[in-house]
């Protein structure tokens, strides 16, 4: 189906093309100087000590779980209302995902009171996910982590440059993970970044990113080193310089793009807040958010009503999505369910995500909102 208003649109121009061509002309296309440059820009932007460029956020999450020391049988508390990669990363290391409820129908991040109830002697870490770029209650998460000696990993895929107080998301726990997948705020096709202030985590992530080898091939090619040893079981989770060059161009646009998204978000809110059949999650959020997506939740809804609305919008050329089918309902995760997750299930049945990207116009937002009002009038 061809949508007149897609869910997302790439924010690309000649800058990305120019950067890619320069890398191709340089004849060094794998991990090298552009990856290092991207890491430096990223760390500086987040006021983080270290950044490690990787091939995806999934890779970053896996490395984060390994840095946190997760091993066979260790429990990790995480939300079910997230992308499946958050949970998969735990299982790659033999860990057991323990699904936690969200706070409410309007705060879709993990419920800190529930987190504490799920802590057992086997718990080693908490993974939070800053839904749509809106921060979890990180003060409470960090207090629980201190109390029980747990590591905190932030899946900050939705929140580059989002803030919690004056700190950037991804720097509030032990490790932060970001994605550069094509529909994220920063798009390179595939790609990701691990961020940390912990030097030994930084060194471990760098080592495991490239087969546990003591030097990178770029360093060897430059003659800085001719030999290497393999001192840990690593992976090939490297980013390449072609994608890093796209990322460098994208980083320059990030701040203005987020400002634009927040203007658009306010337009949506203004036009939808009087709608009695809708909940607008994080409506009164006070900090800067990357506004990766614009989610809404039906009041007194169910999945049939939600799908009716989505089809209605689709017929008018408006693409929507669902964030997310909850992980605990997937076949390979059902056995991990330990208790009811009613709010999570309600939201995943009744949530839909409206278009959000910097190039959306006010006229398009008004159109989307008027079609949505019309659809809501027609459901019952
Ligand atoms: C996109 C996303 C991921 C996975 O990122 P990849 O770069 O595609 O591996 C993980 N978690 C969340 C919350 C995401 O949105």
Helical segment count: 12
Q: Which value, in Å, is the CA radius of gyration? A: 21 Å
What ligand molecules are bound, each kind once? pyridoxal-5'-phosphate
Order of helices and strands: HHEHEHEHEHEEEEEHHHEEHHEH
By helix and strand content, what is the structural category? alpha/beta
Strand content bin:
5-15%
Q: Give the number of DSSP strands.
A: 12
Provide the low-confidence segments as ranges. Answer: none
State the share of residues found in helices, binned by percent.
40-55%
Tell the overall outline.
Answer: globular
How would you state the average pLDDT, rounded?
96
Largest sheet: 7 strands, mixed
The span between the termini is: 27 Å
Strand order of the largest sheet: 1-9-8-5-4-2-3
Q: What labels describe this entry?
A:
380 residues; binds pyridoxal-5'-phosphate; seven-stranded mixed beta sheet; alpha/beta; 40% helix; three-stranded antiparallel beta sheet; 12 strands
Protein model, in words:
The chain has twelve helices and twelve strands. The protein is an alpha/beta fold. Strands 1-9-8-5-4-2-3 form a seven-stranded mixed beta sheet, sandwiched between helices. Strands 10-11-12 form a three-stranded antiparallel beta sheet. α4 links the parallel β2 and β3 (96-100). α1 runs antiparallel to α9 (241-272) and α3 crosses α4. It is globular, with a radius of gyration of 21 Å. The chain starts with 13 loop residues before the first helix and ends with a helix. The protein binds pyridoxal-5'-phosphate. Residues 56-58, 82-83, 85-86, 129, 155, 157-158, 179, 181, 192 line the site of pyridoxal-5'-phosphate (PLP). Pyridoxal-5'-phosphate binds at residues 56-58, 82-83, 85-86, 129, 155, 157-158, 179, 181, 192.
């Amino acid at each position: 189906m061809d949508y007149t208003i897609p869910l997302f649109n790439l924010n690309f121009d000649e800058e990305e093309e120019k950067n890619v061509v320069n890398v191709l002309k340089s004849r060094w296309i794998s991990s090298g100087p552009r990856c290092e440059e991207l890491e430096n820009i990223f760390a500086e932007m987040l006021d983080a000590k270290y950044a490690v460029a990787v091939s995806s956020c999934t890779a970053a999450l896996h490395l984060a779980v390994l840095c946190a020391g997760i091993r066979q049988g260790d429990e990790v508390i995480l939300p079910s209302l997230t992308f499946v990669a958050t949970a998969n990363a735990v299982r790659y290391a033999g860990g057991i995902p323990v699904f936690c409820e969200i706070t409410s129908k309007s705060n879709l991040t993990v419920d800190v009171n529930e987190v504490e109830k799920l802590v057992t002697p086997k718990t080693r870490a908490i993974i939070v996910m800053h839904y749509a770029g809106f921060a979890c209650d990180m003060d409470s998460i960090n207090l629980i982590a201190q109390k029980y000696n747990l590591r905190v990993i932030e899946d900050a895929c939705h929140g580059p440059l989002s803030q919690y107080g004056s700190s950037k998301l991804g720097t509030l726990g032990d490790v932060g993970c970001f994605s550069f997948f094509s529909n994220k705020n920063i798009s390179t096709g595939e790609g990701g970044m691990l961020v940390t202030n912990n030097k030994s985590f930084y060194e471990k992530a760098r080592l495991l990113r490239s087969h546990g080898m003591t030097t990178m091939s770029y360093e060897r090619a430059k003659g800085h080193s001719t030999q290497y040893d393999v001192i840990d079981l690593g992976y090939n989770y490297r980013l390449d310089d072609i994608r890093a060059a796209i990322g460098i161009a994208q980083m320059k646009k990030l701040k203005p793009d987020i400002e634009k998204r927040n203007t658009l978000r306010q337009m949506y809110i203004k036009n939808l807040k009087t709608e009695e059949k809708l909940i607008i999650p994080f409506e009164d959020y006070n900090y800067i958010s990357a506004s990766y997506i614009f989610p809404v939740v039906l009041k007194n809804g169910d999945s049939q009503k939600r799908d009716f609305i989505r089809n209605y919008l689709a017929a008018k050329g408006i693409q929507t999505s669902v964030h997310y089918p909850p992980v605990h309902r997937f076949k390979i995760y059902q056995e991990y369910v330990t208790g009811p997750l009613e709010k999570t299930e309600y939201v995943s049945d009744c949530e839909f995500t409206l278009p959000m990207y910097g190039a959306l116009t006010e006229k398009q937002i008004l159109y989307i909102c008027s079609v949505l009002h019309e659809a809501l009038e027609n459901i019952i």
